Amino acid sequence: MRKLLLPLAVGLAGLGAVSGVLAQEAATAVAQAASAAAPVPNKGDTAFLTICTALVILMVIPGLALFYGGLVRSKNMLSVLMQVFVVFALISVLWVVYGYSAAFTGGNPFIGTLDKLFLKGVTPESVAATFSKGVVLHELTFVSFQGAFAAITVALIVGAFAERIRFSAVLAFSVLWFTFAYLPVAHMVWYWDGPDAITSEETLAAVTAGAGWLWAKGALDFAGGTVVHINAAVAGLVGAFMVGKRVGYGRESMAPHSLTLTMVGASLLWVGWFGFNAGSNLEANGVAALAFVNTVVATAAATLSWIAGEALMKGKASMLGAASGAVAGLVAITPACGFVGVGGALVIGLLAGFVCLWGVNGLKRMLGADDSLDVFGVHGVGGILGALLTGVFASPDLGGTGICNYVSNQCGEWGGIGAQVWVQAQAVGTTILWSALVAVVAYKLVDLVIGLRVSEEEEREGLDISSHGETAYNR
Fold it and tell me: Taken in order 245, 159, 224, 293, is the CA torsion positive or negative?
């Protein structure tokens, strides 16, 4: 009996070993298949977006700082540089503490959650969606890119109340407006689960239900016409009214002290804007190339149309006009750059130069606000123009790309110019109303607690000395 049991036991043991090996091999094969199915970030896309992020930072420091700095009087040069520089640092910190989580997690149609507070759970292995199925990027790269967007948006505002606001008031306002205006608008316009989550009409409905309110409506904003420019410009205009006019405004000369620095700043903005616009595609492909060339064409066209209009009005074209026209073109093409053809970009740029020239002259006089560096006239008017014209020139019939249907995996669909312009108008109106409401409350709170404005004596002395105890230039 023992002789019979021994072979049987050996056989069972062998069978168990073989089964174990087969099970392990099967588990390994399943794991390998799952690993192969999971998309991996492309090194080229990672390098592309990393460089684009650096270009956006270049736009702020030194680009925007020098552009604004050259436009103020010499006694306030350092104060503007300081405001832009420190606002960039402040928002960069707030972005990783809670900003990214509030803007780019699913919560409700108007704001995200704090699930990623202090970037909780975001590791070097984490991935974020792009606009193509099966293509992802490192989430940390996306965090950095979007953080630079948030920082430049808040920094844009300081140009509207330059030369008379308290430095502490700028920082306090920046925290409040960033938290309650920028983050909700960014979430409403840009948040969704990504194309890989859409496989059928049912999943499309689920993604739409969980997306930002304006994204779900179909609003198109490739790189920040609503989120960045209109949002910041409205806050700046409100600030110009609530802080009040500069001492001597309309009676004393307040000419820019260094158009050389303004030209350098504008040039840095133009170069950095390629990262802003092309980088918003999140991938190094043909759409990024389209956004890049559109940024060249629209900006060049706006520069020419602005100085042409200036020459017709005043008899001479100016360096300030050329720089302002370039920024107007950059602003106007921002929401449209990845959606319109080159012909559409050319028209948008030409119109932006003329319309924004009116914005900083006729409209500014109508409003009666001392918007020191024409933030609303350029960023507000240009952003509104670009956002609305996106709904026109994104049409495939006019050379645009149309929109993508991720259920059928086909791009180029279009619901009609009228319908899309109406959606764009809703996005513009929502941004204007929400930014203005938050700005009014934020300025009022800061005024009650800190005080918005320096004294007349400090203003006449110049904010460089009175607020910072140093000067931009030694005489």
Answer: positive
